[in-house]
């Protein structure tokens, strides 16, 4: 299995531009998570999906951020317009089943997209 | 609500000596606990997890952790450090009967001295 795939790996853009980050989860995984990692705030959960449906987006910083999952094998995180404070590493992770219940499953992380907004 | 406290932001050990990374947790319910490792410019990789089975959990690369409910701790140990262990380590808690969210600690940076 190729694992979680993210693209691009690096993105440099100018303030005000639209940025789209992409994620392909591991085949067969029901859950998909988007995280942001910064030095100041550590790892933050932005949003997660179950069977392509957004379940909790309370971590999305503001309306400039949006995420979609049109099918089980693809998700996007869009920032429009981007700002310098959005500079961070964005991780996508997937999980094969619900974490709730007796059996627990792990989240598998992609390599991340390093975003720099100038 | 659940939370994790990693007691040391930075730990340095000499190669070949033991490693101890400390983690305390708080959870309203029965927790699942994880340790993840992040090497520079890489994603997060699972080291080990505790999910109510044996309290001593063995993971990859010789790491292990012991769940101590009375101390609300889940410290990560390794008998002998290797240069390749230099990385950032995250203690993570999940509520097994709550939602699907993981709560991450702030991380401990492990440095190995040759």
Set out the fold topology.
The complex is a heterodimer of chains A (118) and B (114).
Chain A lengths: L4 E3 L2 E4 L5 E6 L6 E8 L3 E9 L2 E4 L8 E7 L2 E6 L8 E8 L12 E2 L3 E5 L1
Parallel strand pairs in A: 2-11
Antiparallel strand pairs in A: 1-3, 3-8, 4-5, 4-9, 5-6, 7-8, 9-10, 9-11
Chain B lengths: L1 E5 L3 E5 L4 E3 L1 E5 L3 E8 L5 E7 L5 E3 L5 E5 L4 E6 L8 E9 L6 E3 L3 E6 L1
Structural features:
heterodimer; A: 118 residues; mainly beta; seven-stranded mixed sheet; B: 114 residues; six-stranded mixed sheet; four-stranded antiparallel sheet; 0% helix
Question: What does the model show?
Answer:
The complex is a heterodimer of chains A (118) and B (114). Chain A is mainly β and 118 residues long. Helix content of chain A is 0%, strand content 53%. Chain A has no helices and eleven strands. In chain A, strands 2, 4, 5, 6, 9, 10 and 11 form a seven-stranded mixed beta sheet that branches. Chain A starts with a strand and ends with a strand. By secondary structure, chain B is an all-beta fold. Chain B has strands spanning 2-6, 10-14, 19-21, 23-27, 31-38, 44-50, 56-58, 64-68, 73-78, 87-95, 102-104, 108-113. In chain B, strands 2, 5, 6, 10, 11 and 12 form a six-stranded mixed beta sheet that branches. In chain B, strands 3-9-8-7 form a four-stranded antiparallel beta sheet, with no helix packed on it. A two-stranded antiparallel ribbon of chain B has the order 1-4. Chain B is 0% helix and 57% strand. Chain A binds chain B through residues 4, 31, 42-43, 45, 48, 50, 55-56, 91, 93, 95, 98-104, 106-112, 114, and chain B through 32, 34, 36, 41-46, 49, 51-52, 90, 94-102, 104-107.
